[in-house]
Structure formats: structure tokens, C-alpha cells
């Protein structure tokens, strides 16, 4: 999740957030 943010990948970050909510 954090890696996606640092790398600048909003798509992966969004997916991570969805998985985190679950």
C-alpha cells in the first residue's frame, strides 16, 4: 500500500485501500 503511494501508483493504492477496508 505505502509502496504504491511512494511509487506514485494511484491504481494500486486504490486497490490496496479497498483490500484494507475488507
TrEMBL record:
Domain of life of the organism encoding this protein: Eukaryota
Q: What is this protein called?
A: Uncharacterized protein
The scientific name of the source species is Nymphaea colorata
Q: What is the lineage of its organism?
A: Eukaryota, Viridiplantae, Streptophyta, Embryophyta, Tracheophyta
